[in-house]
Amino acid sequence: MLDVAIKNAIAQVNVDAAWPLVEAFSTMPRWKPEDVEASAHDIARRLEALGVPVELLEAQLYLSIPYEASIEANGKLYASKPPAYSLSCPEGMSGVLHHVPGALAASVGSFYEKNRDEAAAAEDRIRGKIVLTDGFASPNKVLEFQEKGAIGVIAVNPGIDRHWGICSSIWGNPDLDGLPRKPSIPVAVVNHPDGQELIALAKTGGSVTISTRLEEGWFKSLVPVVNIPGAFEPEKFVLLAGHYDSWDVGVGDNATGDAAMLEIARVLWHNRADLRRSVRIAWWPGHSTGRYAGSAWYADAFALDLDENCVAQVNCDSPGCRWADVYENVAVMSEANVLCTDIIRDVADLPFHGERPLRAGDYSFNNIGISSFFMLSSTMTVEKRKEMNYYTVGGCGGNIAWHTENDLMEIADRDILLRDIKVYLAGIMAVANAPILPFDWRATAAEFAVTLAKYQKAAGDDAHLLDSVEAELTRLTAALDAFYAAIAAGAVTEVGANTVIQQLARILVPLNYTRGPRFTHDPALPVPGLPALSVAGELGSHGPETLGFARIQLQRGANRTASVLRQAAGLVAAH
């Protein structure tokens, strides 16, 4: 149930200041650096007019600004767009076409999977060719094709539109370890009708020339930040954030999100005396042209503060879009599932169907280990998508105007935006004001049990390699049951309980969502649950030459996982 402070804050929500920002941004393209900077100042001006103090942080971001692309074949020129981070090749790259068929994602949850024909993607078929592939120019496909020797990639988008995007798997500003994964081949996207002509050409062994023009380098970027101090634990904070750069004018992705955060900042600032913990609100640049460069920069620059004090991260992307009548495919880490379910029921009177967060959407804080919820917001129903003959996209409430020049004012819905603002506000305040942080790590342990059972089944005769993980997970589960029972009985102090709950995030979030060490950024590639064990699901694909090596990898992954689970159980038991 919503407490009095949340109800009072929700009652103050309106879109009188938010909607004009959406309208203004609908005329402001926001992917070129000078336009992005202008929009940051616009956000700051609006906040100041509302009496909300704002700081403009200055970041140096490595960005790729795409301008134009074309495909030429048999004297015909096909309109195209270059994804950010593809190689700028204005002089053109020519080669023989090779088609790698692919299936479209059935839902947002599988949007970033490769979904391509394994046989057609074999290295001996790709090397020295320009690969033509169905779907979007996702970073995992581009990286694979590049590593297999492709000299270029053309993605055939599923409709009449050509979608902007980014094809790099590097998350945020590259470091020396990440640089080798930077795309070194030209990449372009075409629409479905043109793609069908190119597929027919590929079947005859035809050739094409790809031309692309992009600008890549370091750019000054502004990060507007509002700090709303809590009255009781001001050093602890909830981070609410979303991106303000967009493709073209990006109304549904993400002018509506920017407006939502503006209104939340207004309401919370004027109700800050009712906040137990602080709320920090940030607008990210570099989302579109730097693969979440703004949020990754913030995670780097303020890593120790985030590690010590951030109790939750809430992402605001694509709220308030037309026909968005359900909360499905909404990102939530397991420990926050009950919280989100209750908030959406109490505020919107709708059911909630969350799912594991994708490796996407400015979730730049997994390696630090911060409990997170929301990414995309409400969306249209499956039935509405079928009625409209829409394919799956990664935002805009399911509208296929996503990442195109058609993401205009008609994509936004004033009433839905009002509802979504209230949902976000209630979720943030529920975390900021809870005497004991509302994250249930028993749900995470239950998720681990399901994941482990899947890997044990897949491992077959090698399932015994996972015995140590099972034993430590059993121990952690028992410790968590006792811990939450003690909280309910009042046998644990608030400070003690919150210390454990926050530290569990630092331990278990990286275990479940990352492969690399803390304070780094994993690539923008799909990450399965308990990724150190994921090789268990691949043992059946290994022949005699590599099976032994795969078993070693599984053993090491099991050791790491069991050790982390033991650490978590020890932390819980000590309190």
Verbal overview:
The protein is built from 16 helices and 13 strands. It is an alpha/beta fold and 575 residues long. The strands form 2 sheets. Strands 1, 2, 3, 4, 5, 6, 7, 8, 9, 10 and 13 form an 11-stranded mixed β-sheet that branches. A two-stranded parallel sheet has the order 11-12. The radius of gyration is 24 Å and the shape is globular. Strand 11, helix 10 and strand 12 form a beta-alpha-beta unit. The protein has 3 domains: 4-63 and 219-433, Aminopeptidase; 85-216, 3-Layer(bba) Sandwich (Glucose Oxidase, domain 1), CATH 3.50.30; 441-573, Transcription Elongation Factor S-II, Chain A (Up-down Bundle), CATH 1.20.930. The chain has helices spanning 4-11, 18-25, 33-49, 123-126, 139-147, 192-203, 251-270, 293-301, 303-309, 337-348, 382-388, 414-433, 441-459, 467-488, 494-513, 547-573, and strands at residues 55-73, 76-80, 89-100, 130-134, 152-156, 187-190, 207-228, 233-243, 277-284, 310-315, 327-331, 352-355, 372-373. Helices cover 38% and strands 19% of the residues. The mean pLDDT is 96. The relative contact order is 0.13. Residues 227-415 form the Peptidase M28 domain.
List the helices and strands and how they pair.
Layout: H1 4-11, H2 18-25, H3 33-49, E1 55-73, E2 76-80, E3 89-100, H4 123-126, E4 130-134, H5 139-147, E5 152-156, E6 187-190, H6 192-203, E7 207-228, E8 233-243, H7 251-270, E9 277-284, H8 293-301, H9 303-309, E10 310-315, E11 327-331, H10 337-348, E12 352-355, E13 372-373, H11 382-388, H12 414-433, H13 441-459, H14 467-488, H15 494-513, H16 547-573
Parallel strand pairs: 3-4, 4-5, 5-6, 8-9, 8-10, 10-13, 11-12
Antiparallel strand pairs: 1-2, 1-7, 3-7, 7-9
